[in-house]
């Protein structure tokens, strides 16, 4: 076997040290030639590079169509880039392996109970049958739904259903959690509660999170770092560090009332306005 190229080895090791590395990613939808229906391909994102350290909570924010979901799908392994490379924990992203995903809609199986939905996910992750009930109870407790195993999913409120979807994403004990506008369809109060819970959960478990939203308020509350994207084609145009406290014991609700929070939210809102008009 030829000796490994030391520069390649160093690059591989550097990628493995990070939770996510996107290196000069370009994604196109549609045929590279003009399609049969005469439509030109769409360049959804162009030349995007992004690194997430382990345990970071990074938020992607930007106008509709700027490629937020596309980047998340690349990191999840649902999509392959036309150019550039993507790795999660040093490997090509593979759906399900070490990564949990939560979408805007909970997408639960309506014919299964809450516990049945979680047991199905646990089985998929290889958890033995006799360990599933205890693990289900643990997951439900993590998302504030203790004792709800036997409820039907359609008996739950939208917020409760989304909590089950989060519990399901945690079933495989993922090192990386990807959330695509998970609270967009919820009422304001439920949304605030879930924001606070997800933030606390992430700081308690040390899970790396990539979170997509349209909301400046949500981005600043949740992210340790916020990346602002622009469209045409999708790209990252600004990065805002959020130096707010992130201990598991932090009173997240109280953070919303601080001057520092208001300042950061104002800075991000201004950046989003500039992005929309540039
Ligand atoms: N399957 C697809 N086929 C063709 N074009 C697509 C496809 N998915 C996304 N696009 C296009 O790629 C671009 C980026 O879309 P994407 O959904 O990633 O944006 P987004 O920032 O998540 O938008 P939103 O905030 O509205 O959800 C858009 O121009 C969109 O129309």
Structural account:
This protein has about 280 residues and is an alpha/beta fold. It folds into 2 domains: about 5-100 and about 175-275, Rossmann fold (3-Layer(aba) Sandwich); about 110-175, no CATH class. It contains 9 helices and 9 strands. A 6-stranded mixed β-sheet has the order 5-6-7-3-8-9, with helices on both faces. The longest helix has 19 residues, at about 260-275. The chain is globular and about 50 Å long. Adenosine-5'-triphosphate (ATP) binds near residues 42, 64, 67, 69 and 70. It holds the Pfam family ABC_tran. InterPro entries: AAA+_ATPase, ABC_transporter-like_ATP-bd, ABC_transporter-like_CS, ABC_transporter_ATP-bind, P-loop_NTPase. This is ABC transporter ATP-binding protein. Keywords: ATP-binding, Nucleotide-binding, Transport.
């Amino acid at each position: 076997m030829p000796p490994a190229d030391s520069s390649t080895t160093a690059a591989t090791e550097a990628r493995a040290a990070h939770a996510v590395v996107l290196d000069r990613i370009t994604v196109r939808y549609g045929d590279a030639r003009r399609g049969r229906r005469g439509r030109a391909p769409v360049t959804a994102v162009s030349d995007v590079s992004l690194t997430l350290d382990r345990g970071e909570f990074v938020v992607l924010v930007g106008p509709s169509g700027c490629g937020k979901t596309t980047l998340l799908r690349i990191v999840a392994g649902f999509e392959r880039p036309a150019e550039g490379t993507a790795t999660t924990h040093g490997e090509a992203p593979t759906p399900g392996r070490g990564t949990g995903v939560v979408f805007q809609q909970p997408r639960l199986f309506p014919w299964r109970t809450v516990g049945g939905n979680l047991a199905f996910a646990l089985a998929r992750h290889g958890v033995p049958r006799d360990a599933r009930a205890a693990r289900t109870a643990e997951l439900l407790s993590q998302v504030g739904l203790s004792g709800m195993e036997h409820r039907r999913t359609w008996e739950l409120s939208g917020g409760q259903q989304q909590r089950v979807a989060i519990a399901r994403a945690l079933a495989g004990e993922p090192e990386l959690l990807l959330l695509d506008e998970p609270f967009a369809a919820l009422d304001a109060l439920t949304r605030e509660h879930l924001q606070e819970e997800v933030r606390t959960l992430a700081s308690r478990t040390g899970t790396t999170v990539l979170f997509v939203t349209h909301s400046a308020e949500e981005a600043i509350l949740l992210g340790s770092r916020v990346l602002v994207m622009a469209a045409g084609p999708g790209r990252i145009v600004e990065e805002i560090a959020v130096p707010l406290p992130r201990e598991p014991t932090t009173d997240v609700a109280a953070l919303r009332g601080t001057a520092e929070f208001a300042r950061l939210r104002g800075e991000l809102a201004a950046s989003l306005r500039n992005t929309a008009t540039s």
